[in-house]
Amino acid sequence: MTDTIEAVHSNNFLERLVRVDQGEWPRLAIAFCYFFFLLGGYFMLRPIRGAVAANNSEILHWLYTGTFLTMLAMVPVFGFLVSRFRRGQFIPAIYLFFLFNLVLFIIGFRDDDTPMWLQRTFYIWLSVFNLFVVSIFWSFMADIFQPGQAQRLFGFIMAGGSLGAMTGSWITTVLVLKLGSLYMMMAAAACLLIATVLAVILGRYTRRQRLDRPTAVIGGSIWEGVAHVLRSEYLLYACALMLLHNLTSTFLFNGLAVLVNEQIAGFDERTHFFGMIDLVVQAIAFVFQFLVTSRLVTSLGMSRTLVMVPMMLAGGFVILGSAMGLVLFAAIQVAQRSLNYGVLGPTKEMLFTVVERETKYKSKNFIDTVVYRGSDVTASWIFKGLTSSGLSLSQIAWFFLPVLGLWGLGAWRLGKLYAGLRQRAKNS
Asked: What DSSP line would sit under 150-184, residue for residue?
C-alpha cells in the first residue's frame, strides 16, 4: 500500500485531477458514494434542525447542554462496542440504531404541529447523530488509508460528502414547501440505509484485499481513549483547536437563529432558508475539497493550511463588527462553514492517519463527540451571557478577534506536531 503524496503519472485526466493511483479506485469510489449518501441524508435533516433552532432561539444553550450530556452518556457505550467487537460489526450496528431512531421521529413529526418537546428531542438527537456517524466514517477512512494516501484522497472523499450535502440541501429546498418536512425525513432514512450497506461492502472489500484476514478487535478499556487524549500533547492541541473553532461557529449559528426568528415566519419557510444556506455552503466546499485542499496541504504544508482559516475569518468578523444584517450575517456563516467543510474537515481527518488504531476510533470519537459538543455548550452559554448583558451581535463580533488569534497560534503548533509524527511513521 503506497504512502506517497504524489500519485503516479497517468494519461487519464481524472486520475491526474484527483491524484489517484489505479489500484486505489475501488476503495475510493465506494468511500465516495458511502459519504455521499451519509451526508445527503443528514443535510435533508439539517434544515429541519435549523427551523427547530429558530423556534427555540431563546433556549439554544439548554439544547446544547442536553446534547452534551447525551454525548457523555454514549461515550462508554461506544467504547464498549469498539473494545469488544470488530469494525465490521460495530459500524453497521451503530448506523442501524440511528436509523431506527429516525423511523420513530418520522412517526411522530408533523411540521408546525409537532409537539415542542419532540422538536427539541429531535434537535438533540440530530446533533448527536451527525457527530457520531461522521466521526465513525472518518475513523474508518483513517484505518484503511495511509497518511500519504490521505493527503491525496481525503479531499476527494470529502467532496463526495459535499456533493451529497448539496443534493440533500437542494432536495429539501425544492420540495419542503410542497411536501413538508416529514417526506424529507423519509428520504433521509433511505439514504442512511444505503450508506450502511456501502459501509458493509467497503469493509468486506478491504478485508479481501488483506487476504480475508478479519480486522482485529481493538480491545482495551472503555475509557482508554479518554486517558490517551489527556496524555497526548498532539491530541490536546486538536481539542484546543476544536474549542476555538466552535466558539466561532456557535456564535454564527446562534446569531443567525436569532435573526431568522426575528425576520422569517413559518416552520417550512425557515427550513427553506436554512436549506438554501446549506446548498451554497456545500457548493463552495465541494470546489475546495475536489480541487484545492490536497494541493494546499502539499504546497503549503499542514501548519500554513490550518492557520489560513482563522486568518480569513478574522476579516469577516471585522466586517460583522462594523455592520449587521441577516444577509451579511448569513454570508459570513457561509464563509466559515465552507472553510470548515472544505479545508478544516479534510485536514482534521488527515491528522488522525498518523496515530494508532485505538486512537483512531476511541480517542477520535471522544474528541469528535464529547469535546466537540462540550465546546458547543461552552460557546452557547458564553453567547447567552453576552447577549443577556445587553451587547449587540456587532459588539460581540469584536470579542472573537483574540479567539481567532489563539486559534491561529494553536493551528501552527498542531501542524508541526503532525509533520513530526508523519515523519516518524514513515521511518518506522
From this structure: HHHHHHHHHHHHHHHHHHHHHHHHHHHHHH-HHHH
Place of cell 459519504: 35
Q: At residue 310, what are phi and psi to the nearest 5 degrees?
A: -65, -30
What are the tens digits of pLDDT across the range 242-284? 889 888 988 888 888 888 888 887 777 887 888 888 888 878 8
Give the architecture (CATH level 2) of 22-427. Answer: Up-down Bundle (1.20)
Q: H helices of 264-392, where?
A: 267-287, 293-322, 326-339, 345-351, 357-358, 364-366, 372-388
The rounded radius of gyration (Å) of the Cα atoms in the chain is 21
The predicted structure's pLDDT at residue 208:
75
Q: How far apart are alpha carbons 14 and 31 in whole angstroms?
A: 17
Q: Using alpha carbons only, what angle is made at residue 217 by residues 211 and 219, rounded to the nearest 5 degrees?
A: 155
Question: Pick from 31, 290, 283: which is nearest to 155 by CA?
Answer: 290
Per the document, the length of the chain is 428
The model carries a pTM of: 0.66
